[in-house]
Structure formats: structure tokens, C-alpha cells
Design a protein that fits this description.
heterodimer, A: about 400 residues, alpha+beta, Beta-Lactamase, Arc Repressor Mutant, subunit A, two-stranded antiparallel ribbon, 14 helices, disordered N terminus, B: about 600 residues, five-stranded antiparallel sheet, signal (chain B), GATOR complex protein NPRL3 (chain B)
Chain lengths: ~400, ~600
């Protein structure tokens, strides 16, 4: 019982996606008003409940063709009210709404496009052969709604084919996850595959770009290597980020500085993370490094210690550690974080104030100026009006 | 920003029907653009393609310049004059990309002279939000609507306030139909106090996130939208109330915990992250806290703020203000929730600070100006650049330093902490006895830590909180001895009585680490310091209490175990082969200041 309550209470915080509990079809009856004419499973939504919310289901004209979600105490009802104007109907118009019902604490945005598409399918069927209004609504719809609910809940997609009268019609429904927009991709960032690229027909840009994504080339370099326009590469990489295939990491340089995050303790405690880490950062697959050395190297990453310093102190090849992979893994898992340098020029007269204002990191500046960070840093060091902030 | 409301709508429904009384913001002048929809010819035949093509047109949005557009008052009032079954509970409706949330409230007017017989009236104050607004934002707005409902219900019962205001607004509406509708809401805004309150509420929610109203000049209504209030210093990152709740690292309990447990559960879980050794840092000068306090009216808050200093930890603060520690925790959580304060580790000379990863410092930042106002002659960027590398107060002031310079330095650090520009680094310790880490960790902890979870460890150790206070005074006087746990004393005394002195050393080692796996024991014994019984004993004790799992920083261990820094540092140095240290921010404190 406790467990049930626990599971029930969880989606509220995360807004988790939940299954469809019920699909019902409701129409405006010329004499009886709004009624549910078909429901799968039967009697899931009671007559009384429906009456109290029918105003949100068979709506005023201004709200036609809007996705409307009502959240009740126990249910969430998602509908898309539709009106078809035609003289043949008793009131010159036919109102209907196909609604999905979910748990009240589940996320339902992902079903919106499905409801819209399914409703449009029904509109077409109705217009072509009075599929809904001919009086056998329940018998006609029952199998369709059952199939849609079962398929969407189990497979996440559904292919409907109808052979009721002459010819066949088909429609395909699929639940699309709605994710947050990925943040913009910068020239100096490095894309890295975190998943296998799914086998499918990718667009031409992606096909041309992906071979150069190796976890070491930054975006501007990939653009140059693949001979694709810079903005196209960014768009393509951003798209891959959206699908979770690619993650962005900072450019690896031996002069980089990293620092540990509180997540480092997970590496000591989580055996699964440990084994993934060792296989990833090992120089060879045959003989893996040992966790104590790896942990020591991570622990030694503080502000002021460059990767070069670390390599001199630990000599990673001796420990069977690939330092590039070590940094990559740490950044991807959030064990460590890059410490960026932000040069600020305090000399008011300088025309460099725009660049060295403190809002651009050194990486950004190097990439846009095409200078190596060593060169730039040496130059900045000589100028006393420049202050370097590390954060 | 998706946490600000798009619009606030007030709807009533009674025996005379439903009506939208007021909405804010409203357009003062009607836009005179001709409606794009041409009148439909009633003789055209509906084409299948036409209806189907509509689906390719993106569903129209009702949001224009961060306000709600496109719905007439009639539609909105019919939507929000809900049926009886939906009253007095949360109401949530999403239409395309707008989410409406409210708490429809039934009022039972007890006025005898009420001409409509039933006397039941529904008022519904609806907030229109972006559909993307998260669950917690929706929850907060629902709460606000609910509170408003309660206030209105009370005021209706007390003096018929709502009926009077409603009558006023309806009459303006009725007059408006003859005068033209454009200025109706403007007139209402001038005449009705409820409309004014709604306007003020909307403006406050959009700017600060703090609402402070006195409805009908009688009942105070104060509300805080944490997602908004905490935003000014965490650019772009939205703080959820659960964030303040969530850091359930471990429960530090004081002795009164059990009695106040139910209260605490209903309070924010921010309390759980608080420790007696943390300290409170007000974000505003004390003088500015007055208007906040008059609202709250709690005498204990006043008492606590009288004794406030960022250099005191909460325990001292509680003692000075003569309050219980748990009450000070609650007050602190309250201040943090209302974004009046933040929590830091008390400023002392060993604290190491670095620049916060998302500190908004650049040449155009208004903070630079603000800083030089408080500290003439100093430049924020120059001062903060000294914290590019982890720097402690002790490092920065040398003994020759003038005391005034030192206090200036502390003031600048406090200023930067108040503006969340600095974070403190703590040293954490990880026990790694063998090359393969803690492979046998599972049975290790099962075997020797009777209370294996870190939570219970802290529980049990802070149990001795009151004792620790006493003995601390002693230890600071110089004669510090590490108190031995009773079992260890037992083990030793048995040893001494039954074994010869030659084997003694070997045996006490074995005894002390009896519950450690063989592999770990052998690697520990390679360390020369194990020959000193005191060191080994301390090591074993701290290890058993799971302090070396990266969950406790040095300062916490010092506090809980009543140790001095030098003792602990020596131990760490002696056992550095099996103990790895690293520096990072305290997640419990970092959540108050920056994204982690």
C-alpha cells in the first residue's frame, strides 16, 4: 500500500509520462446535449463527472480546434473539440471531441499531437461517409479506440487501417517525446558521441559531419574538415544533442584546468560507474588501470593545476591511463568541471574592452581570433591592466 | 520568463449568472486592425480538404507580448464559472499554450438583506500562465488563489466586502455597454479596491515575486514565488521550492527534533541541510529587514536578528538569542525561502574561497558600481581576481596587516558572499585502502558499522551535540584528549590484562581493526603511523563512523567529533596512502548560491 502511494506520488514532482487510462468519444446530441457515445474501457468516466466538465469538452465556438486539458482530482482529460458545419445535421453542425484520459499527475503534452491527428482522421471519415453520425458510433469506434489505446500504451505508436466500406484508409499515430530545447552550440565546443548513432537515413549534412565527430575535434574544425558551412554544422550537432546522441564537452588542451565536483564521491561508491570509468579511461582494453590511481588523478584536479602539471606528477601512461579519456569521462559524468579563464581589461581607453569584458572565456576569444591560447595568454600576462578571472 | 503570470482574471458566478468582473492586464485601447477573418459566405460548401488543411496551420497562440490575448470575456467567464462539483479544490485548465490555474471558492453570504435568496456565490481568481510552467510553479499559483479565496470568504462574512465590490463592478460593466467597452476596466480599476489589489499583485509577481497586500485594508496577504524571488542572483536558473527542500543529505537532529518533527515535515526540507555549525548571512542590511519583520510579527525572529552576525554559527546564535536550535533552524529556513538570507559556513581564517562558476562579473555588470559605492577606491574585479585560485582569509592577511585592513577584507568577502560571487571550498576525504578501491565495501560496512547508513551515523553523532559543546570548551583551553568510545576501552583493557607486553602491539592493532577485511588491514598496516596507538585508534574510529566516504568535509568531522584541525590534518597526512583528499564545494551550501 505504501509502495503504491509512493509510486502515485512520484510523477507529480517529475511530471512523468503516464499511460492512457481511457479514450472516450463525445458528441453533441441534438436533443440530449453533450453525451459520451463510446468509451474504452466502459464507464471509466461517470455520467455525473462528465456533466460537470462538459463545458470544457463541447466548447464554445472560440475554443474549437484547441487542445484543451482539464486536470481533475483523479483524472486529466485531454481533448480537441471539433465542429463540422453542414446542412445535413440536425442543428446544421456536428460537434464532437475525442478525449484521452490519464492520471491527474501524469504529463500529457506528448499526446496532444496524437489527439489532433486522430481527430482529423475522424473528421475525414465523417465527411466522406458519415462514419460518426450514421448512428452506429459505438460499434464503429469501439475497435478503433481499443486498438489505439493498447498500441499507444505498449508500443508508443499505432497504425490504423480501416476497411469498413469501399477502399482502405490508413493513418499512423506516434507519441513524440517533448524535450527541452538544447542550448546553442559554440564554435569552440567539442561534440562527442554518447550513444551509437541510430541506423537510419540521416540527412546529407549529418552524413557528412558525423565521421569527424571523434570527441577531439571542435565544431569549427569539424566545419573545416567536412567542408560544411559552420552554421549548418552547428545546427546538425544541435539536432544530435536534442536526440541525446551527442554531448558537448570543452576542448581538450594540456593547459586546461579542471576542478572536482561533489559527484566525485560517487566514483568511489558506485561500482557500476567505476567499471565504466576504468574501461573508458584505460589505455588498452587488456589491462585496465586501477581505480585508486584514477581517483587520485581526479582528486588532484584543482584550480591552478593544469592537465600538464597532472601528467608530470602522475605520469599517466605508467598507470595505464589515457589522460584525454580521463578528462572526457569526468566531464561527461559531471565528476569534474572545466575551470574557464575570463580575461578582463581594466584600462578604460583600450579598444579591447569589448572582447576582454569578462563575459567571453579565453576559449571563445581564441577561437574567434584564431590564436592559440598559449600565445594569447603570454601576451595578456605582459599587460598589467588585464586581470584573469577563473571560474 | 515562464514563471510570471500572463494575466489575472476574476470571475464570479451566482444566481444572476456568471460574469468576468476584472482582468489585468487589459488593453486600454482596442487595436483597430480589421480582423483578418473575412466573413464566411453561408452558401459555400464545406470542402473536406479545407477542414483537413487546417491541421497544417500551427495552432494559434493566445500569448502576445507576455499577455493573454484572443479570448473574449464571455468565453473566459464561462470557462471559469465552474460547476459546484469542482469548487473548493484545485482547478487547472490548459488551452493550447496557456495554462489556467485557480482555486474556485464558494462564499456563503450571511447578509439577511441579500436580495438573491440562495446567498451562495462563487468567486474564482484565475492565473493564466505559460503552459510550460512547471508543476511547482502551478502549485504556488494555486496556493495564492486559494489564499485569496480564503481572504475573500472571510471578508464577505465579516462585512459583505465581495458582494459590495461585485455590485460595483457589475454596475460599471452595465454602464459600460452604453458608453463603449474600452474603458470599463479602467473605470473599475479606479473605483474598486479589489481590482487595485489584483493590479498590484500582477505587478509584484512580474517584478519581484513578492506579494504584500492588505485586502480591504484589513487582512494582510503575503506570498512569495520562490521561483522568481531567487532569480535575481541566479541568472537564468529557476529555483524550485523543492530545491530548497531537496538537499536531503542527512538529517542533523537536535535534541528537540522529535517534538517538532511534524512541524518540520510540513516545513521546507531546507531544514534538513542545515547544520548547527552553519551560519546565517542576511542579504539585506538589518535596517531593511524591518518591513519584512513587521509583517511576520514573530518576536523570536526579532530576537534572533538582534544577535545576528555572519561570524556566528547557528548554534551560537541560538544560545545568544536564547532560542532553541530547532527554532533557529526554522527561522533560517523561513528567511531563506523568502530570499532574505542565505546559508554559509561561518567566516573564519581557514575558509577557502573561489569565484562562483556562474558569477555574473563583467565590465558592464551593475555589481561593479554597487561594489565601489560600498567600498570606495576598490575595484570589484581586482578584488575578486584574488580568488581565482582557492584563497583563504589566513593567507590574505599577514601578521603585519593593520586590523582595519583585515576588517575591510572581511567586509568585502561578506559582500561578495551576499551577492553569490564566491563559493567556499571544503576538503573531503575518501578512504581507498586497496588499489581496487572499496570492492568489499558492502560487506565491510555491514560488518562493522552497526548503523550502516550515513544518516544514522550523523544522527548518532549529533546526538552527543550537547555534550560536544561542553567538551569543546575544554579542548579549546588546550588539554585536548580524544574521548574514547567505551568498547575500545574495553577491548584495550582486556588486551592488557590477558596478553604479554611483547604481543601487545600486534594484538591491539588486530583488535582495533578486527572488523576490517584482511586485505584492507594488511594495506593499512604498511603505514608506519599504525605503530602509534593513538593515531590508529583515531583512524579506526573515524573510519567506522563512515566519515571517509566523501559525505563529510573536514570542518564537519571536526565539529561532530570534537577534533582540532591540526589533529585531523596530521592524521590525513599520516594515512595519506589510504585516504585521498579532494576539494570541492559543500553541496548543502552550494544549492543556496549557485547551480551545481
Amino acid at each position: 500500500m505504501d509502495m503504491n502511494n509512493f509510486i502515485k506520488s512520484r510523477p507529480e514532482y517529475s511530471g512523468k509520462e503516464g499511460p492512457i487510462r481511457c479514450i472516450f468519444f463525445c458528441e453533441f446530441h441534438p436533443t440530449a446535449g453533450p453525451i459520451i457515445s463510446c468509451q474504452v474501457p466502459e464507464n471509466y468516466i461517470s455520467k455525473e463527472l462528465f456533466d460537470s466538465i462538459s463545458v470544457y469538452i463541447i466548447t464554445k465556438a472560440e475554443l474549437q480546434r484547441s487542445t484543451i486539458t482539464v486536470t481533475l482530482q483523479d483524472y486529466k482529460i485531454l481533448g480537441f473539440p471539433i465542429r463540422i458545419d453542414d446542412r445535413k445535421y440536425a442543428r446544421n453542425a456536428y460537434h464532437f471531441n475525442l478525449c484521452f484520459v490519464c492520471d491527474s499527475n501524469a504529463r500529457t503534452v506528448q499526446y496532444e499531437s496524437v489527439v489532433v491527428k486522430l481527430s482529423d482522421y475522424l473528421v475525414a471519415m465523417e465527411m466522406e461517409r458519415n462514419f460518426l453520425s450514421e448512428g452506429k458510433t459505438s460499434a464503429n469506434l469501439q475497435p478503433i479506440l481499443t486498438q489505439v489505446m493498447n498500441d499507444l500504451n505498449t508500443k508508443g505508436e499505432c497504425a490504423l487501417t480501416s476497411t469498413l466500406t469501399e477502399g482502405t484508409t490508413a493513418t499512423h499515430l506516434k507519441i513524440c517525446c517533448i524535450r527541452l530545447d538544447p542550448s546553442p552550440v559554440m564554435d569552440y565546443q567539442v561534440p562527442i558521441f554518447v550513444k551509437e548513432l541510430p541506423e537510419q537515413q540521416w540527412d546529407l549534412t549529418t552524413q557528412q559531419v558525423t565521421p569527424y565527430i571523434d570527441g577531439f575535434n571542435h565544431v569549427a574544425r569539424i566545419a573545416a574538415l567536412s567542408d560544411v558551412e559552420n552554421n549548418l554544422v552547428k545546427a546538425c550537432v544541435q539536432n544530435l544533442v536534442y536526440y541525446g546522441v551527442v554531448a558537448m564537452v570543452p576542448l581538450f588542451q594540456y593547459g586546461n584546468v579542471y576542478c572536482t565536483t561533489p559527484k566525485l564521491k560517487d566514483l568511489a561508491q558506485d561500482p557500476d560507474l567505476q567499471s565504466r570509468c576504468l574501461t573508458y579511461v584505460g589505455k588498452s582494453k587488456i589491462q585496465l588501470p586501477c581505480i585508486r590511481d584514477v581517483f587520485r588523478m581526479y582528486a588532484a584536479m584543482t584550480r591552478g593545476t593544469t592537465v600538464r602539471d597532472l601528467c608530470m606528477r602522475f605520469n599517466p601512461p605508467n598507470l595505464r591511463i589515457n589522460e584525454r579519456k580521463l578528462v572526457q569521462f569526468g566531464v561527461l559524468e559531471g565528476i569534474i568541471r572545466r575551470v574557464n579563464k575570463y580575461p578582463v581589461i581594466l584600462n578604460e581607453q583600450s579598444d579591447l574592452q569589448k572582447v576582454f569584458s569578462g563575459s567571453c572565456s579565453l576559449d571563445e576569444i581564441c577561437c574567434s581570433m584564431g590564436a592559440s591560447s598559449q600565445q594569447l595568454e603570454d601576451q595578456l600576462e605582459r599587460d598589467h591592466s588585464v586581470v584573469m578571472l577563473w571560474k | 520568463m515562464e514563471v510570471s503570470p500572463l494575466s489575472i482574471i476574476l470571475v464570479k458566478s451566482d444566481s444572476k449568472g456568471d460574469r468576468l468582473l476584472f482582468r489585468y492586464p487589459f488593453q486600454t485601447q482596442k487595436n483597430n486592425e480589421p480582423s483578418s477573418k473575412s466573413r464566411k459566405n453561408p452558401y459555400t460548401l464545406p470542402l473536406v480538404e479545407d477542414t483537413l488543411l487546417q491541421s497544417t496551420v500551427p495552432t494559434n497562440t493566445a500569448i502576445n507580448k507576455e499577455t493573454l490575448m484572443g479570448y473574449t470575456d464571455e468565453v473566459l467567464s464561462s470557462l471559469f464559472a465552474v460547476k459546484m462539483e469542482l469548487c473548493n479544490r484545485k482547478f487547472e485548465l490548459k488551452v493550447n499554450d496557456v495554462r489556467f490555474v485557480s482555486h474556485p471558492t464558494l462564499l456563503y453570504g450571511n447578509q439577511k438583506d441579500d436580495e438573491d435568496g440562495s446567498g451562495i456565490m462563487l468567486v474564482n481568481m484565475v492565473f493564466a500562465l505559460h503552459a510550460l510552467a512547471s508543476h511547482s510553479v502551478v502549485k504556488c499559483y494555486h496556493d495564492l488563489s486559494k489564499r485569496m479565496g480564503i481572504v475573500l470568504r472571510y471578508e464577505e462574512r465579516r462585512c459583505g466586502y465581495v458582494s459590495e465590490q461585485t455590485k460595483l463592478m457589475t454596475s460599471v460593466h452595465d454602464d459600460g455597454y452604453t458608453n463603449g467597452p474600452s474603458s470599463v476596466f479602467q473605470i473599475i480599476l479606479e473605483k474598486c479596491s479589489v481590482a487595485n489589489d489584483i493590479k498590484k499583485m500582477y505587478d509584484d509577481l512580474c517584478t519581484t515575486g513578492l506579494v504584500n497586500l492588505r485586502i480591504n485594508k484589513w487582512i494582510p496577504l503575503s506570498f512569495c514565488l520562490p521561483q522568481k524571488v531567487h532569480q535575481w542572483h541566479m541568472r537564468g536558473r529557476i529555483v524550485e521550492p523543492e530545491d530548497i527542500d531537496r538537499t536531503s543529505l542527512c538529517v542533523t537532529t537536535s535534541k528537540t527534533s522529535s517534538s517538532s518533527k511534524s512541524v518540520r515535515n510540513s516545513l521546507f526540507r531546507c531544514l534538513k541541510a542545515l547544520r548547527p555549525y552553519h551560519s546565517l548571512l542576511l542579504l539585506y542590511p538589518l535596517s531593511q529587514m524591518n518591513d519584512f519583520m513587521s509583517l511576520d510579527g514573530s518576536p523570536s525572529l526579532l530576537r534572533m536578528l538582534m544577535q545576528y552576525s555572519p561570524l556566528k554559527n547557528l548554534q551560537t546564535l541560538a544560545a545568544d538569542a536564547d532560542l532553541t536550535l530547532s527554532h533557529v533552524f526554522e527561522l533560517t529556513a523561513h528567511l531563506v525561502y523568502w530570499a532574505k538570507a542565505t546559508v554559509i559556513f561561518p567566516i573564519c581564517s581557514t575558509n577557502k574561497y573561489v569565484i562562483s562558476p556562474n558569477a555574473p562579473i563583467h565590465l558592464n555588470s551593475p555589481l561593479i558600481e554597487k561594489f565601489s559605492e560600498s567600498f570606495p577606491g576598490l575595484h570589484l574585479i581586482r578584488v575578486i581576481s584574488e580568488f581565482s585560485l582557492p584563497t583563504s582569509l589566513g593567507q590574505k592577511c599577514n601578521p603585519l596587516c593593520h586590523p582595519s585592513q583585515q576588517s575591510q577584507l572581511i567586509k568585502t568577502i561578506i559582500w561578495m558572499l551576499q551577492h553569490h560571487l564566491l563559493v567556499q571550498l571544503h576538503t573531503y576525504i575518501q578512504y581507498m585502502p586497496t588499489e581496487n578501491g572499496l570492492n568489499s565495501k558492502l560487506d565491510f560496512s555491514k560488518k562493522h558499522v552497526t548503523s550502516s547508513s550515513p544518516i544514522s551515523t550523523v544522527l548518532s553523532s549529533s546526538y552527543q551535540l550537547t555534550n560536544a559543546e561542553h567538551s569543546r570548551a575544554e579542548s579549546e583551553s588546550g588539554a585536548s584528549t580524544v574521548s574514547e568510545t567505551p568498547e575500545l576501552i574495553n577491548a584495550r583493557s582486556i588486551n592488557i590484562s590477558f596478553t604479554s607486553t611483547e604481543n601487545d602491539k600486534q594484538d591491539y592493532q588486530e583488535e582495533l581493526l578486527l572488523d576490517f577485511p584482511d586485505e584492507e588491514r594488511s594495506s593499512i598496516f604498511k603505514i608506519p603511523a599504525t605503530n602509534t596507538p593513538e593515531d590508529l585508534k583515531l583512524f579506526a574510529r573515524l573510519c567506522r563512523k563512515d566519515y571517509f566516504q566523501g559525505n563529510h568535509h573536514i570542518e564537519e568531522i571536526m565539529y561532530l567529533e570534537n577534533l582540532r584541525r591540526s589533529q585531523l590534518m596530521q592524521l590525513l597526512d599520516k594515512f595519506r596512502d589510504v585516504l585521498i583528499t579532494y576539494e570541492t564545494e559543500d553541496p548543502a551550501i552550494a544549492m543556496f548560491s549557485c547551480s551545481s
